[in-house]
Amino acid sequence: MQTVILGAQGKLGGVLHRHARRAGLGWLGQGRREGVDLLWSPDCAPRAEVFPAGGTVINMIGRASPDEKALRHANIELTRQILHHATAHGVAHVVLASSAAVYGNAADGPVAETATLSPLIPYGHSKAEMEAVAADYAQRPDSPALTILRIGNVAGSDALTAIARQRCTTGEPMDLHRFPDGAAPVRSYIGPRDLFDVVTAVAQTPPASSRILNVAAPTPVDLEAVMTAYQTHFLPDLRWQDTPVPNGVPKQVILSTQALERLIHLPSGPDYAAKMALQVKQDLAP
Questions:
Q1: Residues 48-91: pLDDT tens digits?
Q2: Whole-model pTM?
Q3: Residue 43: what pLDDT?
Q4: Do 282 and 233 form a contact (C-beta atoms < 8 A)?
Q5: Pairwise CA distance, residues 117 & 260, whole Å
Q6: Residue pair 16/60 in contact by the 8 Å Cβ criterion
Q7: 45 Cβ partners below 8 Å, 6+ apart?
Q8: 192-204 and 11-23 are packed helices; what angle lies between their axes, rounded to 10 degrees?
Q9: What is the 3-state secondary structure (H, E, C) of the chain?
C-alpha cells in the first residue's frame, strides 16, 4: 500500500523523503513547491493521492516558532484536518511527529512514554495539545491506526548543527556549556538514517489502535562528543570554547527507548556520536 510523507520539504520530512528515494521505496512526498511528488497545500481541498485508501500517511508538517498562533495552526489545527481527511479517504495508518519537548526538562533519568507531560515552551505545549487531539480521535470507531512519535534531537536538523555550520562560515567558535565538574550536557539524539529506519519500521507495523513511541538512539551522547565527531567527519573548521552552563539547563535529558527497541534494533555504544556524524555527512551530500 502507498505511503505519503506530508511536509516533505521541511527538515525532518526532507530527511525521510531523501532516504526513501535513495532506498527506492516508492513513498510519495507532499509539499507546496516544485521538487516533490505531490503538490498540495493543507489549506486546499483534500486529494485522494495525498490520502491513499488503505495506505499510510506520515505527517511531518509542523512549526517550532515562538508564534503561538502559527504553532496552533500548524501543530494542532492542521493535525485535526489531516486526521479528518485520512478518515474520510480510508487511510489505514497515520504517523504523527510529536516532540520530546512535551516532557519539559525531563532531567530525572530516562523518561518513558508513560511520564506526565510538563512542557515548558509554547512549542512543547502545542505538541502536547496535538497529542490530545490524536488521543480523542483514536477513540472513534472509524479512526485510522495512529502512531505518535516523540522525537528527540535529530542530528543534522537540530540547532546545534545549524549553529556549527554557521560558525564554520564566520570563523567564530561555538560555546560549549560545561558544568562545574567539567562535564558537558548529555542528550538523547538520533542520526538521520536511523530516524528513517525507525519511521520505516513504524510504517510497516501499524498498531491495532494507537501507540506512542520515544524516538532516539539507545545511547545518549554528550555535546562535546557531538562537536568532536562533527569536526572529525564533516566540519573540520569547527571550533568551540568552554562556557559555564546557564542556570536551569539540565545535565541530562534522556529518553527511554525500551518501547522503540522492541520494534527495531538501532546502533548504539560509546561511538554513536561518530556514527551519527557520518550519517549527517551522507545526508547532506548532494
A1: 999 999 999 999 999 888 888 999 998 999 999 999 999 999 99
A2: 0.95
A3: 83
A4: no
A5: 19
A6: yes
A7: none
A8: 70
A9: CCEEEECCCCHHHHHHHHHHHHHCCCCEEEECCECECEECCCCCCCCCCCCCCCCEEEECCCCCCCCHHHHHHHHHHHHHHHHHHHHHHCCCEEEEEEEHHHHCCCCCCCECCCCCCCCCCHHHHHHHHHHHHHHHHHCCCCCCEEEEEEECEECCCCHHHHHHHHHHHHCCCEEEEECCCCCCCEECEECHHHHHHHHHHHHHCCCCCEEEEEECCCCCEEHHHHHHHHHHHCCCCCCEEEEECCCCCCCEECECCHHHHCCCCCCCCCCHHHHHHHHHHHHHCC
Class level of CATH domain 3-154+189-215: alpha beta
| CA–CA dist 192, 22 (Å, integer) | 13
Structure confidence by residue, pLDDT tens digits, 156-213: 999 999 999 999 999 999 999 999 999 999 999 999 999 999 999 999 999 999 999 9
Q: Which of 279, 27, 25 is nearest to 154 (CA)?
A: 279
